Amino acid sequence: MSTKTANKWAILQIVNMGTLISTLDVGIVNVSLPVMAEQFSVTLAQIGWVATVYLLTMVALLPFLGKLSDRLERRKVYSLGFFVFGIGSLLIAISHGFAALLLSRCLQGVGATMIMANSQAMVREVFPDHERGRALGVNAVVISIGTLSGPALGGLLLEFADWPVLFWINVPIALVACVLGLRLFPCGTGGSSKTRIDFVGSFLLAAGACLLMMAAESAKANAAFRAEAVVEGAIGAALLVALWLQSRRIDYGILDRELFRRRNVWLGNAGSFLINLAQTATLIPVTFYLQSQLGYSAWATGALLMLQPLVMGFVAPFAGWFRDKYGGAAPIALGSLCCAVSMLFVALPGGVTPVTVGLQLAAFGVGIGLFHATNNAEIMSAAPASKSSLAGSLLAMVRYLGQIAGIGLATLLVGSMGSSAGDGESFGAPIRALFAVCFVMCLAVTVAGRLVPKERQTGESASA
Length: 464
Description:
Largest sheet: none
Number of strands: 0
Structural class: mainly alpha
Radius of gyration: 21 Å
Helix content: over 70%
Order of helices and strands: HHHHHHHHHHHHHHHHHHHH
Low-confidence stretches: 419-424, 457-464
Oligomer: single chain
Mean pLDDT: 81
Distance between the termini: 13 Å
Strand content: under 5%
């Protein structure tokens, strides 16, 4: 434990480095897609798979690699993830064909999955419970910054260099992080869980999540739910139902019954899904509305949208400190309530203006700063130490599934934006309806946390 204590803050910086590059790469590539489409002589619809296949790889493999990491030595799996991510980035940068580009992007996604599956488990491993909130609060800030600042950073780099630079810069960072991880991470982490791996459940989850994401991407590209998207979504949902039935039948399912019997795990993941759904669903139409209806430039829109991660960056470390000192119930409830109240700035009549959008972004930033930092710490502390990687990977997967569902909800309610001429108010009504739905979802998280009875703390959780 003395070695862990001495190196824990250095380890946190390596974890944050991995979190940053794996989440940043989700958005940083989007701004280069038109240039890449021209170079590889493909359509914009085809080049969109460069972004989609990365997310698909992570969503499909997160729980499987999380469970595998609990069986193997977590330190090696995590550090090797940096190496795989760096090799994938290198191959992308030197790709000369579209097929090679997609395969390299998949390899990069595998590396990112190995990192994300173990990031929060490594934090739990080296930080005692009374410091875990602060550590995961900082990590939550990095997740938000990486997710939201990717397009802005990518656009800035493309002003001075060609698109391969976006991937070249990952190579030295990944190699340095790999070496530091092998040197600093404590040995013997993981390897204590020897249960069987649910390959059938892993396949059902991967196939179901992939189909749901493909349905969301198809709907987003066509600004409406076509028959193809509906069929993909229906089959994907059916596969996830089959996964649930499979997990009830066996005791080693990928949706681990021991994990989801714990209140903080299942309730925290459900809340995280709804909050991430609301965040993604509201950012998409707001971005479109500011540029297409109000005439804001891309730079001005990006500056306004940065309000959310900036506010979160100030709030999340405080929320983690408060949770470590006084418990997590209050920040989680207050955070989800702030998220709900923020929706009213836009949902109420006459609310779709730059001022109310700015207020909504700032208030939602306060809410997710309070919620995510505390909720993540509560989930990881409630999970058994032998299943830390599985718990962390499921939490990351829920975040991405929430983002997919947010895309689908935004397309369903405001998918017609931009399809026909009209004044701003003709688009204001569906946006307000979307924000009203998200208000109900965020409020449900607050209410559920107060109504669901608390469980007795187990000996393992108490000593974690």
